[in-house]
Amino acid sequence: MRGGISRLGLYAYPHLEHGHGLRGASERFVRHDWAYYQLRFEGLQEYYPDELIKLGVKTLEDYIYKMTDPDHLRSVYPGEVVELMVDPAACFVGDLEYFNRISDDVNMRGIPEDRSARDHGSDYWENCISLVDFLRWYRKPEYMSDGRTIRDGDMYRDGVPFGTGDYLPIKGTPTTFPWSFNCPEILIPGEVPQEHIRLIT
Q: Could you give the strand order of the β-sheet that contains 197-200, starting from the edge strand earlier in sequence?
């Protein structure tokens, strides 16, 4: 599932510092820069002005204040996030995008599930890397304050990114590594000790 799993308000795929998670967790617990809010505000102004009226905001400053207010975010995105402390050397990173492709094959293209699962499942495992390597070699591009220019765009292995949707390899990344991670998930072998788990509210 692209958005993660929620049961009774407990998010099983939290958006931690790295990885893909629920939008609610992303909005509540991940810091965004000014350009992020500017792009969203301008998009609402142009395409969904009624949403700004519902929020009760008129200016970009009002919007940023609203979208960083903990009480407002909790009311819109209820639930809690579980944070885990893990050893990066013992963990791996895979891309959930391959499982999204299985869903697309079955529901949109009529491809048998077993065939699609065999093809994309194989791709998933072939493109897994260690969490150590992911942290060292991959970055998610960010826009500068103008909302158009990629910050430090020349640091990426395959040239200046066209957008900010994927985690991309930086210069020096081995050519055998994946060219992107769209929905990275961290795989944790074994059990996580209770003292390494905390609930973020």
A: 6-7, 10-11, 80-84, 197-200
What's the pTM value of the predicted model, to 2 decimals?
A: 0.67
123 Cβ contact partners less than 8 Å away, ≥ 6 residues apart: 98
CA separation for the pair 45, 158 (Å, rounded)? 34
Bridge partners, 63 (sequence order): none
Percent helix, strand and coil across the chain, each rounded to 5? Answer: 45, 15, 40
Closest-CA residue to 22 (of 49, 40, 1): 1
Tokens matching residue 91: 């963990």
Q: Please say if the pLDDT value at position 89 is more than 80.
A: yes
Domain residue ranges of the chain, discontinuous segments joined by + = 6-84, 88-191
What is the chain's length?
A: 201
d(CA 63, CA 75): 16
The helix-helix angle for 60-67 and 34-47 (nearest 10°) equals: 110
Residue 175 has pLDDT above 50, yes or no: yes
Report CA 29 to chain centroid distance, whole Å.
12
